[in-house]
Amino acid sequence: MPDIQVSLWRGTANGRYQTFSVPRRESQTVLDVVTWVQRNADPTLSYRFACRVGMCGSCAMTVNGRPRWTCRTHISKVAGDGRLEVGPLANLPVIKDLICDMQPFFDKWQTAKGAFAPSASRADPVATIPPSSAPRRAADAGIECITCAVCYAACDTVRWNPDYLGPAALNRAWTLVNDVRDAGGRERLAAVAARGGCHTCHSHQSCREHCPKALNPVASIAGLKRRAAAAYLRGELG
Ligand code: SF4
Ligand code: SF4
Ligand code: FES
Fold first, then answer.
1. Helix (H), strand (E) counts: the chain
2. Ligand 1 centroid vs 184 CA: distance in angstroms?
3. From ligand 3's centre to the CA of 119, what distance in Å?
4. Is 91 near ligand 1, meaning CB less than 6 Å away?
5. What confidence score (pLDDT) does residue 1 get?
6. How far is CA 70 from CA 10, 30, 136, 194, 235, in A?
7. Alpha-carbon distance 139 to 220, whole Å?
8. H/E run at residue 4
9. Which atom of ligand 3 is nearest to the CA of 69?
10. Would the CB of 196 count as within 6 Å of ligand 2?
C-alpha cells in the first residue's frame, strides 16, 4: 500500500500545514497516523488523546475540513485517496499544533449550570427512578456526551456569536433539567434562557450531524426552549 500523505497543522492560529509521509497499515485510525508522526518524524508535534476507544473525548480534531473524534475515525473512511489534512478544532483558541484551549467550552458548560445540584444528602436513601419514566428517558437521550467539542466546532452560531453557550453545554443542561434528583432546575432554566442561551440556536442541525455519539443536541435545545417559554409564562424566570 502507498504511504499516506498527511498535512498537519503546526504552530498557533497563524501557523501552517506541514506534510509527512506515513506508512499505511490495516485498520489504521487518524489518531494512529498523528501518533506515528509524533513518534517517528517529529517529537515536537503536540496533540491530545487519552483512551483511544471513544470514551474520553480528548482526541477531536478537524479531519479533511470536518470535526471528528480521531481515535474512532478510520483512514479508509476519510482518506481513500491517501491524502489527509488534520488541524485543531474550529471555534476554540489554538494552543499549539493540534491542541485547542478547551477553557471557553467548559466555561460555557458552567454558565449553563452543567453541574449536578443534589437535592438529597448521602444520608438519604438512594433515589429510585423507573427506567421507563418520561424524565429518565429524556435524560438518557443526551447523557452519553463525552465532551469532545465536535458539535461546538461544527456550530456556525458559535462561530458568529462567541457568547452562545453551544450545543454541548445546552445538551448537558437538558439532561439535568430532566434529572428528578437535581435541585438546580429553576436557576439552570434561567441561565439557559438568558442571552446567548437556547434561544440563540438556529436549529440548523450541524451538531446532530457531527456528534460521534449520535446524540441530538438540537432536540435537547428544543426541549429547553419549550421549558423556558413555559417557565416564563408562569412568571418563574423574572
Ligand atoms: S442546531 Fe443549534 S446548536 Fe446545533 S449546530 Fe445549529 S445552531 Fe449550533
Ligand atoms: S454532544 Fe456529541 S459532539 Fe457534542 S460534546 Fe457531546 S459527544 Fe461530543
Ligand atoms: S482518545 Fe478518547 S475519545 Fe478518542
1. 10, 7
2. 24
3. 33
4. no
5. 83
6. 17, 5, 31, 34, 46
7. 9
8. strand 4-10
9. 4
10. no
> What's the CA gap between 233 and 238, in Å, rounded?
10
State how far the Cα of 101 lies from the Cα of 99, in Å rounded to an integer.
7
Q: How many CB atoms lie within 10 A of CB 119?
A: 14
Q: What percent of the chain is predicted at pLDDT more than 70?
A: 100
Rounded Cα gap, residues 206 and 23, in angstroms: 33
Q: Ligand 2 centroid to 87 CA: how many Å?
A: 18
Alpha-helical regions (H) of 29-182: 30-40, 75-78, 103-111, 134-142, 150-154, 156-160, 167-177
The one-letter code for the residue type at 56 is: C
Ligand 2 pocket, residue 215 CB under 6 Å: yes
Task: Work out the pLDDT band at 80, boundaries 50, 70, 90.
Answer: confident
Alpha helices in 98-147, H assignment, sequence order: 103-111, 134-142
Ligand 2, atom 6: closest residue by C-alpha: 145
Strand partners, 62: 67, 87
Residue 238 has pLDDT above 80, yes or no: no
Of 108, 170, 201, which is best to mutate to test ligand 1, by the most ligand atoms within 8 angstroms of its C-beta?
201
| 3-class secondary-structure state, position 9 | strand
Whole-number Å distance between alpha carbons of 179 and 172: 11
Which residue's CA is the nearest one to ligand 2's atom 7?
145
